[in-house]
Amino acid sequence: MKEMLEILEKLDWSPLFISLKTGVAATVISFFLGIYAARKVVKASPGKKAVIDGILTLPMVLPPTVAGFFLLLLFSRRRLLGEFLFDQFGFKVVQTWVGCVIAATVIAFPLMYRNAKAAMEQIDVNLVYAGRTLGMSDIEIFWKVVIPTAGPGIASGTILTFARALGEYGATSMLAGNIPGKTGTISQKIAMVIQDGDYLTAGIWVVIVMIIAFVIISLMNLISGKKMKNVGRW
Q1: Contact present, 97 and 104 (Cβ < 8 Å)
Q2: Residues 91-121, buried b or exposed e (16+ Cβ, 10 A)?
Q3: pTM score of the predicted model
Q4: Cα dist from 220 to 132, 154, 160, 227, whole Å
Q5: Contact yes or no for 155/167 (Cβ under 8 A)
Q6: d(CA 179, CA 16)
């Protein structure tokens, strides 16, 4: 116990702050992109929907290291896009915190997109027709009818997206590396201290992650409970 308290006093909390900062940034980006993509896909024809949905969901089923490999190829300064961004804007992605955000966004985005899409597909079309009857524009219907009605599903997707971005490891390691105080997230810290044989420090970080995960799951259950409170139980 004494040893654990000493470790807590000396613990570098930067991985937690970097993970939280990355998770929030990736969630905000995924939130708006996911809702936009879901709206477009829901209104697309069946053929287009199948293809676009497959592309947007691909990062969720691929190993994160594979997604990280493609991101590294895309943003490396040896490649066209990476070289252009650095030469024209001085913008570097590889081994930077921006790389953490991009990797986490790519991996977490499908969760936001699929939850938003599923919520929108369950909306009663009569609500949309009623909005049109009242003279509302498509944009007004979307923000005043669709989004509030799909709110619980979108909220659940947002929480899941944050959880996935917070714990992302494979793609982040490939694109951003593991630079202490800069790109070193909790997941990378756990892997690093285990390699050093420091299981006590790793255990402390695991407990921290488990507490965060428990809070996230509890929030999801609360949201789901509010959504189902008026539904009869068998």
Answers
A1: no
A2: eebbebbbbbbbbbbbbbbbbbbbbbbbbbe
A3: 0.85
A4: 33, 11, 8, 11
A5: no
A6: 14
State residue 21's pLDDT score. Answer: 93
Neighbours of 211 (CB within 10 A): 10
> How many whole angstroms separate alpha carbon 224 and alpha carbon 88?
47
Kindly report, residue by residue over 10-31, the tens digit of the pLDDT. Answer: 777 888 999 999 999 999 999 9
Q: Are 89 and 95 in contact (CB under 8 A)?
A: no
- Separation of alpha carbons 206 and 203, rounded Å: 5
Q: Helix H segments across 76-177?
A: 80-89, 97-121, 125-133, 138-141, 147-149, 151-166, 170-175
Q: How far is CA 231 from the centre of its chain?
A: 30
Q: How far apart are CA 44 and CA 159, in angstroms?
A: 26
3-class secondary structure, 93: coil
Task: Give the model confidence (pLDDT) of 35-72 as tens digits.
Answer: 999 989 988 888 888 899 999 999 988 888 999 999 98
For 80, 93, 99, 179, the CA distances from 85, given in Å and listed in that order, are: 9, 9, 13, 22
DSSP state of 8: H
Question: Nearest CA to 175 among 81, 86, 102, 88?
Answer: 102
